[in-house]
Amino acid sequence: MILSSMRDVVFGYGKEPVIDQLSLDIHVGEFVGITGPNGSAKTTMLKLLLGLLKPWSGSVHMNTEQLRGKKLEIGYVPQQVASFNSGFPSTVLELVRSGCYHKLGLFRRFTLDKEAIVERSLREVGMWEYRHARVGELSGGQKQRICIARALAGQPEVLVLDEPTTGMDRRSREGFYDLMRHYADVHGLTIIMVTHGLEEVGNRLDRTITLERQESEEWQCLSTNSCNVLSGLED
Amino acid sequence: MFEYEFMQRAFWAGGLIGFIAPILGVYLMLRRQVLMADTLSHVSLAGVALGSIMKLNPVLSGFAVAIIGALLVEQLRRSYRTYSEVPVAIIMTSGLALAVVLMSLRMNLSKTFSSYLFGSIVAVSNIQLWMMAGVCLIGLTFFFVLRRPLYNLAFDEETASIGGVQVKGLSFAFAILTGMTVASAMPIVGVLLVSALIVLPAALALRVARNFAAAIVIAIITGLTGIFSGLTASYQWNTPPGGTIALILLLFLLTGISAKKLISLYNRKRHRAVKQQQTATLYIHSKSNT
User: Fold this and answer.
1) What is the pTM (predicted TM-score) of this model?
2) Phi, psi of A105 (to 5 degrees)
3) Which residue of A81, A98, A151 is in closest CB contact with B152?
4) Which residues, given as ranges, of chain A have pLDDT below 70?
5) Are residues A90 and B155, on separate chains, in Cβ contact within 8 Å?
6) What is the ipTM metric for this complex?
7) If we measure between CA atoms, which residue out of A208, A97, A115, A111 comes closest to residue A151?
8) A1-72+159-235: what CATH class?
9) Residue among A78, A85, A90 minimizing CB distance to B212
10) Per the CB < 8 Å rule, is B162 touching A88?
11) Hey, what domains does chain B have and what are their CATH numbers?
């Protein structure tokens, strides 16, 4: 079953497109890695998929209406989220609990079941011991981990991660990739992850999408001083 | 001093605004929109001038223009995503320019204006008091009912949007509430210091609080204490209420920051002493073993 599809999508920030005629399908339950050099529009592609950006032309469709008979829940960890305001007055536990707010609505209280999910998410990313710490006191890698725990606490059906392991040490990164594989296998979670560490993720991924700058356009970029990055796809 | 009706009204008004303005300040600071309060107070001043010229109630016209200004700032903020402070500067300059020009058209307005600029206890009328009560009630309901989406919005707009928060609608509603609060706080602290009432308690709260609820509570307590002590001092020493309140709030902020620094310095020293003691104990143990 196709969860999301892009057809002949063109998008850019200036006059020139950074994504040109991009088409792809993401299937339910897949663990997909998106890779490519800097400036190859990986984050832009994610934002187009999530509907945060509107394409110049082409179509982007996310099957948000129905999956297992209910509205599709999406968890998103953006690239810069770990660099959030270090003065944000919140404990780790409070921040991760906020990942469940959309399920609880405005007034429903936290159930034991939800508390257990929050605890599990924090334990899975190895941050349970820091639950009473103020988020601003954490390191970059730790902030990244609690942002992932926050997304997991919302029990999403689709998890969209933009370079989620930034700031983590190698052991944490390996553990994180194992955890994502586990979520895909056991919970049927669809994971779309932008990463530079493809060799580290190894065979845990179901599929890799590589965005590339076209060589001829690279030369044009040098001569005109405008970054005209055209993206292609490789499975 | 409570035998005077105007002082009773001033304390009522201060209590109401001291409750809502610091909560608003916490969210404004977290959303990096601190200057919005200052901007809207200048815009509101233009509204007051416009109301006087058009023979409307200046309180109501100032209130309405502040809301329109808030909506404009929010709309422009969406257009200038990369430079979100630009719309604030545009609206602030326009508001002040309009106020000055309109004021020059009616020279007899200058006395009324000085009470709006610097705040005056006697300037709080019954209609303003009722307006403040209304704004306070609306604001408290807004912040209580929408506390969860507002928390997510303050943390990160993009993830909030993906998580189902109606970011655009909530941001506009928040902007309207900001305009309403600023317009109703003007008579007590004045245009020039209205942002002090919103920002200073929040700045202290964000500095010392460990969690979100504590930040809100600390901001409210600071705001109320600052306003009540400022009004009392203003009455006793015959000083302008706005400036007195702002100075007391500033004093609270400086004391809070210094106290926090001292506590962290003490904790660091204690931690170092414990470490040194542990190292010494280990050394003695290893010596006695050999």
Assistant:
1) 0.82
2) 70, -155
3) A98
4) 64-70, 80-85, 213-235
5) yes
6) 0.78
7) A97
8) alpha beta
9) A90
10) no
11) 5-289 (1.10.3470.10)
